[in-house]
Amino acid sequence: MPPVAPMLAKLSRQLPDPIAGTDAHWVFEPKWDGFRCIVFRDGHELLMSSRRSKPFDRYFPDLREPLLAAMPERSVIDGEIVVPHAEGRGLDFDALSQRIHPAESRVEMLARTTPASFVAFDLLAVDELSSMSSPFSERRRLLTEHLTPGARVHLTPATTDADVARRWFTTFEGAGLDGVMAKRSDGVYTPDKRTLLKVKHERTADCVVAGYRIHKDGEGVGSLLLGLHDEEGRLHHVGVTSAFSAPVRRQLLTELDPLTHDALEHHPWRDWAEAAAPDRAGSGPSDTARMPGGVSRWNAGKDLSWVPLRIALVAEVTFGQLESGRFRHGSRFVRWRPDRDPASCRYDQLEVAEPVAFEEFMADPTG
């Protein structure tokens, strides 16, 4: 079977209404916070393919034997690669991201210290038969019948009960759920098309705007660097907000220019900014605050340089999840908050879900 692009999903802020005028219904599943992966097995041959059809095999050698044991001899299964937190605090996306590393020795070490798991949620083919044109209810039945779950390969929970889905959405965010997926029971598999629904968490936070990065085309501000203070008053880098239109990017560059003058003199991230200077290459910040620089694990050549701003601006932004003190996904700019003092932008304003062990959720997903 040739490489297949995964189905995609449209964003929704609430669970969909029941489907009227048909026998079809919604099937709800947890939305896992990991790497989307389609696994192809043909005998002893195994290929793990990313959402963009890039091979995952070299980064997750620890999944090969569990997948061979769980999958039919000839089959294609869609799912998600995740890394459960070593301390039972849901899923660890930072540890998962670190698995993408060019050095084979480090890949082998991480495979031992932060082993991955695979959560299966769709079956695209088994033996000689493609099931992509079958309704989802039939594909789910086939997946349940043919998958042999093990210690590292799981069958994702599914329910038609909207109340259970709401409980997943609210109660089990701390287990690493990124929200809830909604799939029509009569839906066929449509590669690269947004025919699913994803209901995701979205909250807002007031953050310090401590700097910016120039857009990749060199025209205007590409992203604003966001910070929050901890209980000791240290300013931590928590993420960025971007996706501005071209006119807004140019306007921001003009509007922010006055705040760039002498910005480093009392900047809380001064050490990090100066660490990029030629005479201090390789040095780092002097305290333990999270900083905005460093090498991108996704693209070693990516320019992560930034322009410091005097600490004066506060922006309200959306965020979904907080992990290791940072926003897990990109944040959307909502508005400026001239009424807020930057010193008042603290972590304690955030609503954060209590941790729930991944294994605990999988053992009793209905709560």
Describe the structure.
The strands form four sheets. Strands 3, 4, 5, 6, 7 and 8 form a six-stranded mixed sheet that branches. This protein has a five-stranded antiparallel sheet with strand order 13-12-11-14-17. It has helices at residues 64-70, 93-98, 104-113, 136-146, 162-171, 246-256, 270-275, 358-363, and strands at 8-12, 26-32, 35-42, 45-50, 74-82, 117-126, 129-130, 153-155, 177-184, 194-200, 203-214, 221-229, 235-241, 307-319, 322-323, 326-327, 333-336. It contains eight helices and 17 strands. It has 367 residues and is of the alpha+beta class.
Mean pLDDT: 87
- Work out the count of structural domains: 2
Count of DSSP strands: 17
Report the major sheet: 6 strands, mixed
* Helix-strand sequence: EEEEHEHHEEHEHEEEEEHHEEEEH
What key attributes describe this structure?
OB fold (Dihydrolipoamide Acetyltransferase, E2P), single chain, globular, 8 helices, D-amino Acid Aminotransferase, Chain A, domain 1, 18% helix, 17 strands, alpha+beta
Q: Could you give a quick summary of the protein structure above?
A:
The chain is of the alpha+beta class. The protein is built from 8 helices and 17 strands. The chain has 2 domains: 8-200, D-amino Acid Aminotransferase, Chain A, domain 1, CATH 3.30.470.30; 203-349, Nucleic acid-binding proteins (OB fold (Dihydrolipoamide Acetyltransferase, E2P), Beta Barrel), CATH 2.40.50.140.
